[in-house]
DNA sequence: GAGCACTGC
């Protein structure tokens, strides 16, 4: 059955291996006692889920252990069922106590809450509720099951350090190891020492279960009966997936993916295909190649192929196409970025082709910013991708590498904490009472170089003092805002420049990427360029964004969607910017910062420098920019308004994007004397003169 | 001449 060029691995259906391993471990830790309480009032449908037979087991484990790590595949129903079991078993009987469940994504929090509310036949926000930014639906008196995003729980910890509102916290999808979940786990370990009654359920899908158990296990003796954390596993309802490898390493995975699609298409029975590549360019290229190679060609099953791209920046109407079932006589080939690994699920996929690569954020301590780098995926990630083939029936996964090389891949993707800019996380930890972040028990310690760089930045911004303590009020106020510290500094210094309203607007706009729609080439492309030019100002991108935002607000009376369309602006993006803007204004008011309108563009630019001064660059005689500190060569990003204008001598930027070159994004033209005045502690006059 | 995916009182 296997397509040519692929070797069948030794009896290696990928699903059972984690499970077997973990089951053995769980058995070692404890003797299971099943109590036989009859489960009353449960819908028959719920009882059919694979998790149901382990219901009593889970409840038993929770009585024995403070922390229970549950390893289960998607489709086991753990995210919807466990909270209900807990309520049924009386874990929320105490007045006002709840079960809290964290999710890494907003959609997960809302859709899970909706499903559980439906199963419980209750209106949303009563017994079952959710809380995500800008949208919450729960009742302090009635809600017993609350789904939320991870960030929300971190915020709640700032006001309720022992999480007294909760009797059980369930952390879902912990294997994704977001920065927020690592903060939560580190703090949770401290909370558990103080609150013996609190229980934590950790749901994870991969091999890091043992690592997490050891992290939480408070038992330092050899006597396993004293363990406080244990693992149990739940089988899912996924079908088996047969895995194939290449005989020879492949030099070009896009090309190899195309060939694999074509071979598979000719030989294998009907069923849709999902191809994993790393970025938009590769996806578009692959789709083009597939279309070229297969015009009018039918497979032996009489099928034609229907290639579709899928990535985050694709217009929503095009994204929706991948969810449509294949037309009769067609085999759907979805060519996607990592978006299809966890964020979206496409039904009907039977074949997965995995390039083995992904673009990941990596912090660069030299430039002080995150860069996107094409990286080999981990084995765990590869399993997750393969699993996408087994959702409706047994599937196949073709890995575009040799099996030997696959075995050499890291088991897990490094947690976000070890890869990305830590300044926001460090500021949050300080606000959560962790004065010495170097000694904080991170589930996985970040590189100390990165930690030091973030402390240095926070110090330069004035958020922490000589002792590393949060300054009052600046550092404390900054930690409350869900934005990068350079931006929150900018916001709080806006009082001095009497332009808080405009700075809030600029920051809100910076949170939305690609506010300008770029139609694919031709006449529309030209019109879009003309429209964009209407908003552009020579001072740079920040003031251009302010211009767009202000003009948008003025249009409000009229048909705003049409206006956005005519000006090639994303209506949804602007709508969200407006929401963010209002939230920032509310926060400012809470701190008694007056909301001041300003039309003094120089003052606004000075205020921008007061936060972005660490990201300053000058025009070098070599014809490109250089960072003032470190002398790293930089270019203007093609989306910047400065790209087509005469290159100014001095700029500050918000972000860097690494591709072939390092590009500055969202730039403002500055006067170098502002750096001397606004950041004398950071730049010495001599450095600036040398650069000039 | 260029954009993995998320998130946040």
Can you offer a commentary on this structure?
The protein is an alpha/beta fold and 692 residues long. It has 3 domains: 31-234, P-loop containing nucleotide triphosphate hydrolases (Rossmann fold, 3-Layer(aba) Sandwich); 241-417, 3-Layer(aba) Sandwich (Rossmann fold), CATH 3.40.50.300; 481-692, no CATH class. Helices cover 39% and strands 18% of the residues. It has 25 helices and 22 strands. An 8-stranded mixed sheet has the order 5-4-6-3-7-8-2-9, sandwiched between helices. The protein has a 7-stranded mixed sheet with strand order 1-10-17-14-11-13-12, with helices on both faces. Helix 6 packs across helix 7 (179-194) and helix 18 packs across helix 22 (571-590). The longest helix has 20 residues, at 571-590. It is globular, with a radius of gyration of 27 Å. It starts with 5 loop residues before the first strand and ends with a helix. The model is unreliable at 1-42 (pLDDT under 50). The structure holds one DNA strand of 9 nucleotides. Its EC number is 3.6.4.13. One of its GO terms (molecular function) is RNA helicase activity. It is an enzyme of class 3 (hydrolase).
């Amino acid at each position: 059955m296997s397509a040519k060029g692929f070797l069948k691995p030794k009896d290696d259906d990928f699903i059972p291996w984690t499970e077997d391993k973990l089951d053995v471990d769980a058995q070692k830790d404890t003797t299971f006692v099943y109590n036989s309480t009859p489960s009353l009032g449960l819908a028959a449908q719920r009882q059919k889920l694979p998790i149901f037979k382990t219901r009593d087991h889970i409840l038993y484990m929770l009585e024995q252990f403070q922390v229970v790590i549950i390893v289960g595949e998607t489709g086991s129903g753990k995210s919807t069922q466990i909270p209900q079991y807990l309520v049924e078993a009386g874990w929320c009987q105490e007045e006002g106590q709840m079960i809290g469940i964290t999710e890494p994504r907003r959609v997960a929090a809302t859709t899970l809450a909706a499903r559980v509310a439906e199963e419980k036949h209750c209106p949303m926000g009563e017994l079952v509720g959710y809380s995500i930014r800008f949208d919450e639906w729960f009742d302090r008196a009635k809600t017993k099951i609350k789904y939320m995003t991870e960030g929300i729980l971190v915020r709640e910890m700032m006001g309720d350090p022992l999480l007294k509102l909760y009797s059980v916290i369930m952390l879902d999808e912990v294997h994704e190891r977001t920065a927020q979940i690592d903060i939560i786990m580190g703090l949770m370990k401290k909370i558990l020492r103080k609150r013996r009654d609190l229980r934590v359920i950790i749901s994870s899908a991969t091999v890091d279960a043992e690592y997490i158990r050891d992290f939480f296990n408070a038992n330092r003796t050899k006597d396993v009966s004293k363990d406080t954390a244990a693992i149990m596993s739940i089988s899912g309802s996924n079908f088996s997936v047969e895995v194939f490898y290449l005989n020879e390493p492949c030099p070009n995975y896009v090309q190899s993916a195309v060939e694999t699609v074509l071979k598979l298409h000719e030989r294998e029975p009907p069923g849709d295909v999902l191809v994993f590549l790393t970025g938009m360019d590769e996806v578009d290229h692959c789709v083009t190649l597939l279309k070229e190679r297969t015009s009018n060609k039918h497979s032996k099953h009489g099928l034609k192929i229907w290639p579709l791209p899928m990535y985050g920046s694709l217009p929503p109407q095009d994204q929706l196409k991948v969810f449509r079932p294949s037309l009769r006589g067609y085999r759907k080939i979805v060519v996607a970025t990592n978006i299809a690994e966890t964020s979206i699920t496409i039904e009907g996929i039977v074949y997965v082709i995995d390039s083995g690569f992904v673009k990941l954020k990596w912090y660069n301590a030299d430039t002080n910013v995150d860069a996107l780098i094409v990286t080999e995926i981990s084995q765990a990630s590869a399993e997750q991708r393969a699993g996408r083939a087994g959702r409706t029936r047994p599937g196949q996964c073709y890995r575009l590498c040799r099996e030997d090389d696959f075995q050499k891949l890291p088991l897990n993707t490094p947690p976000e904490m070890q890869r990305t800019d830590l300044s926001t996380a460090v500021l949050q930890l300080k606000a959560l009472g962790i004065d010495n972040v170097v000694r904080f028990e991170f589930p996985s310690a970040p590189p100390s170089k990165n930690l030091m760089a973030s402390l240095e930045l926070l110090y330069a911004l004035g958020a922490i003092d000589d002792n590393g303590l949060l300054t009052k009020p600046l550092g404390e106020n900054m930690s409350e805002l869900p934005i990068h510290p350079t931006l929150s500094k900018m916001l709080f210094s806006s009082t001095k420049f009497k332009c808080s309203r405009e700075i809030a607007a600029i920051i809100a706009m910076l949170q939305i990427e690609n506010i300008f729609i770029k139609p694919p080439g031709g006449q529309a492309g030209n019109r879009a360029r003309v429209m964009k030019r209407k908003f552009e100002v020579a001072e740079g991108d920040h003031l251009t964004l302010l211009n767009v935002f202000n003009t948008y607000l003025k249009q409000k009376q009229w048909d705003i969607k049409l206006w956005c369309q005519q000006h090639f602006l994303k209506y949804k993006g602007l709508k969200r910017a407006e929401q963010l803007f209002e939230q920032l204004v509310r926060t400012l008011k809470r701190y008694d910062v007056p909301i001041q309108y300003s039309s003094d563009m120089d003052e606004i630019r000075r205020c921008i420098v007061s936060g972005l001064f660490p990201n300053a660059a000058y025009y070098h005689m070599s014809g490109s920019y250089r960072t003032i500190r470190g002398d790293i060569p930089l270019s203007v990003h093609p989306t910047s308004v400065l790209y087509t204008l005469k290159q100014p001598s001095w700029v500050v930027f918000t972000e860097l994007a690494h591709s072939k070159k390092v590009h500055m994004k969202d730039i403002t033209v500055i006067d170098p004397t502002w750096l001397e005045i606004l950041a004398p502690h950071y730049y010495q006059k001599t450095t600036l003169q040398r650069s000039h």
